[in-house]
Amino acid sequence: MEWLPNTITAIRFLLIVPVGYGLVLEEYVLTLTLFILAGITDALDGYLARRFNWVTHCGALIDPLADKVLLIVVYSIFAQQNIVPLWLLFVVVGRDIAIVSGTLVLYCLTNHFFVGSSLEGKLCTFTQILFAVVLLFDQDILQMPLLVVESLQVLVVMLCLISVLGYACRVIVKLRAHQEIN
């Protein structure tokens, strides 16, 4: 059954299109429902992989990729609809580009992909998801206080910067360790 978490991750990939389409149509309640469902698949696949030791190399790559693609789609449409400023989209996407680039550099130089997740990276992703949920609520369900929206936006930016710096430090440590071995 070690294929089950990856199958659940594949379902999350499939949810990206209807989430994006719902956002484009400004069907925020439907989008919120699908976005929460995607979040449940993220929690479930991770729980199953860890609980039953069904962790695979494929899952270690596609699970965070699904999160990144989903969040990039959501934040891109938010920016296009002027729900978030364009610079915030650049921060979110820039973080992901930096992480993917660091992973590729690490692989090219060491033949290893894995850097590992971190608390600050998990907090960053969680905060990006929470902010998206709050923004979806704010559009059509419940007007959120401006202080909440602005505070979460600042928190997203801070955690993006902290997590990418932490990631860069871990890549540098891995590169130095690799150089010492060779």
**Order of H and E elements:** HHHHHH
Instruction: Find the count of extended strands (DSSP E, 2+ residues).
Output: 0
Could you name the ranges where pLDDT drops below 50 across 5 or more consecutive residues? none
Assign the CATH topology.
Answer: Four Helix Bundle (Hemerythrin (Met), subunit A)
CATH architecture: Up-down Bundle
Q: What is the typical, i.e. mean, pLDDT?
A: 93
Count every helix, treating DSSP H or I runs of 4 or more residues as helices.
6
Structure, explained:
With 182 residues, the chain is mostly helical. It has one domain (4-181): Four Helix Bundle (Hemerythrin (Met), subunit A), CATH 1.20.120. The protein contains 6 helices and no strands. Helix 3 (57-80) packs parallel to helix 5 (119-140). The longest helix is centred in the last third of the chain and has 36 residues, at 146-181. The model has no long low-confidence stretch (mean pLDDT 93).
Compact overview of the structure:
Helix content is 84%, strand content 0%. It is mainly α. The longest helix is centred in the last third of the chain and has 36 residues, at 146-181.
Overview features:
Four Helix Bundle (Hemerythrin (Met), subunit A); 182 residues; globular; mainly alpha
